[in-house]
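Troubleshooting: if your tokenizer reports a length mismatch, compare against these two reference records.
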Amino acid sequence: MPSPTYALFRNAILGERQVTCVYEGRYRELCPHIIGTNKRGEEAVLAWQFAGESSGQLPQWRCLKLANVSGARVRDGDWHEGRSHKTSQTCVTNIDLDINVDVRKVR
């Protein structure tokens, strides 16, 4: 059964809504794009971080292990899609939901 954090991120993808949270001690503002599990079976999300705190430049793609996320909240705001990948993503190996495939086609 998915964690409450997983459900929050999954619903945010379906509704194209922003998520704010703390990850690795830093406040993040994100638009999640792909959710599922990583190669170790841990819940993971690939998100476009457009604001908040970071050790590198923003905006950029982030791979988050959901067990390490705290204080996650969904909020309204502009949807940020980020730049295209130059390589295939390896963050989420068992994809449950991908906004580019599962959500956008349905509309």
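Reference record two:
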Amino acid sequence: MDRTRIVIWSSNISVPASAMKATTGVLMDHGNLELRLGEDTLWQSFDHPSDTFLPGMKLSLNTRTGQQRGLTSWAALHDPQPRKFTLGIDPKVPGQTFFWKENAPYWRSDLYIGKQTNTAFDVDGENAPSSNGTAYFLTYNFDADEVYLTYGVSDSSTKLRVILNPTGHIELLLWLEHSETWFVWWRKPFDQFDFYARCGPYGACSGKNETLSSPCKCLTGFRPKFQKQWDMGDWLGGCVREKALMGFQRFRS
């Protein structure tokens, strides 16, 4: 509520009248806000993420019901209205994390295969301050009814958060105690060729080799669909086959 006791936000959960004065709100050390009735958790903020992904939270997809739990960007840094960027797990490709801009694919992660993938990354990135070997752990888990992504950190005193910001970037932020600022340790999309389908159908990014005439190339056996646009740096039209596929004629014996 604001100073005039007007409700600004509510967990929107039904509580029996007999329990109205028995519920408590608890903000946990790891950032989860829980509404409790005795020992039971009636509601928790980790189940309803907005633009921030904290260690211990899950981005998930229920493969049986189709229910998703993902991130949604704010309209601006100081305006929490949900806006056009979302991040979650695509039901069509449950082994990847997808980033959408107004329902169109914008970026996608690597493909995770297998029951569970645990990866440790040293927090000491390029230009980052020393963290004495602290690592964060990324887990992509496939259960019978649920696929989820979560992460943690080896040293609980290290403060990390992932944010989906209004400008269309996913950022992993590290809190620097000495300067009391958030350091951007990882960001995606990083450059123009991180974007989804940047080189169009049957096109592929050839890397950041500046000696190449074009950073996009057609797959073997394909050529640019629109050569003039391709030469001008517009690769979204992609590529087409150099030779049409020959059909098979059926013969009777």
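Descriptive notes for reference record two:
- The mean pLDDT is 79.
- The longest strand covers residues 79-90.
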